[in-house]
Known about the structure:
Blueprint: H1 2-7, E1 13-14, H2 37-46, H3 50-60, E2 64-65, H4 72-79, H5 88-95
Parallel strand pairs: 1-2
Helix pairs in contact: 2-3
Amino acid sequence: MVEFCKSKGIVVTAYSPLGSPQRPWVKETDPSVMDDPIVVEIANRYKKSPAQVLIRFAVERGIVVIPKSVTPSRIQANFESMNFELKPEDVRLLLNLNKNYRGCALEWIFDHKDHPFAVTS
């Protein structure tokens, strides 16, 4: 989808780029991207947090990232994701993490004609 949007001049924005682990409807069985062993391993290699790695990953893909935070130390840490680059092999590892999961799929409006993930027959 990202490449298609880029080919059409559409800017993609990451909504909940860190997985919104505190969202009210989270289930215990939902995947946690910041706890994913591959994300944690990459973060440890760079001496960064998983959040910094995920923000950097999106930025390097040309995606606008707006992580939510009200905590000054986390806001500062988010900015520090701009002071390193991921190696191509780490980008490939992160690209392969797709779990075909949407944490904010807007189920409560699924029947709306303009729902972004609606399936048409």
